[in-house]
Design brief:
Helices cover about 35% and strands about 20% of the residues. The protein has about 400 residues and is α/β, with parallel strands linked by helices. It starts with 15 loop residues before the first strand and ends in a 12-residue tail after the last helix.
Length: about 400
């Protein structure tokens, strides 16, 4: 679950409230969305999930009026979004779709600048904002600013799409299956970036996804919908996993709810160890001496930008004069805001019993197998205690929150 610091600035998140919202499409007997009422607190990330045709995308698009409601109200910070000019409304709400939705004939910078330009921002402010956002989503502005979408990978295009959605500094950002078209590794990295961004900026973000694991990883709250956008459960990921409100929710979550809880804790919530570090080009004998004094058998190798490049055994460094440029890309790294599940995946491919942790690409320490394993054991113990309570006939799960 994300941990927003609700950034204290004029463009922090706005509250959203659905009040008896209905959408009836012409020619259809049943409403796509039927009398939906829902409150989304300012500065939170809420994931809309549910089976195909349940109305989650329709509900999302009614917030920025790409779909017009048939009846009801949508309040953004208390103002009725349905009464104003829809074009002006959309310029105040970020929108990110699958694949990025970039215009192919203009550069990355011009794609990001679309809404600020429409809002008549000064050119120097637009340029500064574009570079800030490219850096925020992990793309070097000097490299990517002038490229065209066709020159980017799918993951890079999606990063630019996120940057464009944030360009005008909107209080609300809507994301419709934003990471559905990228490979699993890129998807995990983009999810981590979104968690970082939301934590730093405190925007209100609404994400539509079909993936309950993604919802658990991203959301402060999860809205699980049945057909007709009827609320099956609206609650925190912890509460949904611990106390599904109905058989429908239980089936939708699927088996392995204990494993899904590994998506509820973040790497930076764990103590990190600090093995000796060296930089490419350092004197190897000096590095070996420091490692031996610290009674450590391995060294983390960083580049000039403090990015982890390799994790080597001390005995390997005894054969060289200086720390060489690594030739193999690391696979045992994880972001500070990644989940415990991601950390375990990285640890399992490491030969050092841990994974190197980065924040925005810069090395900050190592998360060990032991600390993650202790957490998993605590989950197993809690599950065992819960089973003992239930076997005694005590159903203390409580009633799930619904608006």
């Amino acid at each position: 679950m994300t941990d927003s610091n609700n950034a204290q600035n004029s463009t922090a998140g706005a509250s959203i409230e659905f009040k008896n919202i209905t959408k009836q499409y012409r020619g259809q007997q049943s409403p796509a969305v039927d009398n939906l009422s829902l409150k989304i607190p300012a500065g939170e990330l809420v994931a809309f999930v549910g089976p195909s045709g349940c109305g989650k995308t329709t509900s999302l698009k009614m917030i920025n009026r790409l779909v017009e409601p048939t009846s009801g109200q949508i309040l953004i910070n208390g103002d009725d979004a349905i009464k104003g000019n829809p074009t002006e409304l959309r310029r105040q709400i970020g929108y990110v779709i699958q694949g990025g939705g970039l215009l192919p004939h203009i550069s990355v910078a011009d794609n990001i600048a679309l809404v600020p330009s429409l809002l008549k921002w000064p050119k120097d402010k637009i340029t500064k904002r574009t570079d800030e956002l490219l850096d925020m989503v992990g793309l070097d502005p000097s490299i990517y600013r002038d490229r065209f979408p066709r020159e980017l990978s799918g993951g890079q295009q999606q990063r630019v799409g996120v940057a464009r959605g944030l360009a005008a500094d909107p209080p609300v950002v809507l994301m419709d299956e934003p990471f559905g078209a990228v490979d699993p590794i890129t998807r995990a990295r983009l999810q981590d970036e979104l968690v970082n961004i939301q934590s730093e900026l405190g925007k209100t973000i609404v994400v539509v996804t079909h993936d309950i694991d993604e919802a658990i990883k991203l959301g402060h709250r999860i809205l699980i919908l049945e057909p007709g956008a009827n609320i099956a459960q609206y609650d925190t990921p912890e509460q949904i996993l611990a106390a599904p409100a109905s058989p429908f929710v239980e089936n939708f979550i699927g088996s392995g709810s204990a494993l899904k809880q590994l998506n509820l804790r973040r790497v930076d919530e764990f103590p990190l160890s600090e093995p000796p570090v060296a930089r490419i080009g350092d004197n190897a004998a000096e590095v070996v001496r420091r490692a031996r004094e610290a009674k450590q058998n391995s060294v983390v190798v960083l580049d000039a930008q403090d990015r982890p490049r390799e994790w080597v055994q001390v005995r390997q460094l005894e054969r060289v004069e200086t720390i060489p440029e690594p030739q193999i890309e690391l696979s045992s790294t994880v972001e500070a805001r990644s989940t415990v599940s991601d950390a375990m995946s990285a640890i399992l491919v490491s030969s050092h019993g841990g994974a190197m942790v980065t924040r925005r690409g810069k090395y900050i320490g190592v998360i060990s197998y032991g600390s993650v394993n202790d957490y998993i054991r605590s989950l197993n113990g809690a599950a065992s205690d819960s089973a003992d309570v239930l076997s005694e006939g005590d159903d203390s799960g409580g009633e799930a929150y619904k608006p």
